[in-house]
Design brief:
The protein contains seven helices and four strands; from the N terminus they run H-H-H-H-H-H-H-E-E-E-E. The chain is mainly α. The relative contact order is 0.08. InterPro entries: DUF454.
C-alpha cells in the first residue's frame, strides 16, 4: 500500500515539477527532489527513469552537485522572493507576514550556505574487508570490520 501511495505522490510531484519549467512560480527543483524521494522509496525503475530525465539533469543535478552558477542562484532566490512576496501581500494577518519573511530569509541563508560548501567527495567502495579483533561491550560480542585503507 505504501509503495502505491509513494508512486502516486511521485507522479503528482513530477507533473507539478514539469509544469514548473513553464510556470516560473512553481519550483521545478523542489518538486523533482520530492519526486526522487518518493520514487526512490517505491520503484527503482521509476527512480532510474527520473534521474536520466533531461529536466532532472538540468534542474536538480547542478543543485545536488553544488554546481549552480551565480545567475542560476540569483534567479532561484528572485523567484522564491516573488512567491513569498505575493503571499505576504495577500495574507491579512501581520504575524503570518512576519513568519513568511523569516522563512524566506532563513531559506536564502540556508541555501546559500549549502551551495557555497564544497561538494562531498564520493566514498570509495571497500575492496576487501578484514575482521578486527572482537570487542566486548556488556558481555555482547561486537565484530567490526575495516577496509584495507584504514589498516
Amino acid at each position: 500500500m505504501k509503495k502505491y501511495i509513494f508512486l502516486t505522490l511521485g507522479a503528482i510531484t513530477f507533473v507539478i515539477g514539469t509544469l514548473g519549467i513553464f510556470l516560473p512560480v512553481l519550483p521545478t527543483t523542489g518538486f523533482y527532489l520530492l519526486t526522487g524521494f518518493f520514487w526512490m522509496r517505491s520503484s527503482d525503475k521509476m527512480y532510474k527513469k527520473l534521474t536520466s530525465f533531461k529536466g532532472y539533469q538540468k534542474y536538480v543535478t547542478p543543485f545536488l552537485q553544488k554546481k549552480m552558477t551565480q545567475k542560476e542562484r540569483r534567479h532561484m532566490f528572485i523567484m522564491m522572493g516573488i512567491v513569498f512576496l505575493i503571499s505576504v501581500i495577500f495574507v491579512p494577518y501581520w504575524w503570518i507576514k512576519i513568519i513568511l519573511v523569516v522563512t524566506y530569509v532563513s531559506l536564502v541563508i540556508g541555501l546559500s550556505i549549502y551551495l557555497n560548501k564544497k561538494p562531498i567527495k564520493q566514498l570509495k567502495s571497500p575492496t576487501t574487508k578484514q575482521p578486527n579483533p572482537e570487542i566486548r561491550v556488556n558481555s555482547t560480542v561486537i565484530k567490526s570490520f575495516v577496509t584495507d585503507d584504514e589498516i
